Amino acid sequence: xSVLKESTKLTTSNISSLVGTGAGFDLMRxxxxxxxxxxxxxxxxxxxxxxxxxxxxxxxxxxxxxxxxYMGWGELVKIKEKKNELTFHLKGHIIEKRLHQTxxxxxxxxxxxxxxxxxxxxxxxxYECFEEINKKDNVVEIKAMKA
Length: 147
Description:
Pfam families: DUF2507. By secondary structure, this protein is an alpha+beta fold.
């Protein structure tokens, strides 16, 4: 079993050395994990995202946006900021492909969990993230609400 070395944090520079394909990841995420985890899969994926963020060293939103690209999660863009809410769009070719494939039901719970924990690390405020899929515009809107 491979485990992240205790002293190693994930960064945009060392994550780029990993090799992976989106199709294999999507099959594990949307097919195998729900088969093992049942109806709890979306909740566990959210907490898996938070756990990945805890092992990550990101200090700025630019690093966060770059990390999303390296992970193959799409292009994350902050589009609105209010006192207790941040709004992001997740878009790009990868998102369009995921939204319009017909093999699997997709969600973005892993990305939401990662985003909520990353924002907490950068701001010291607790946020919960929720996604809304817009297939027509090929975008996922993620709202980060201060808890």
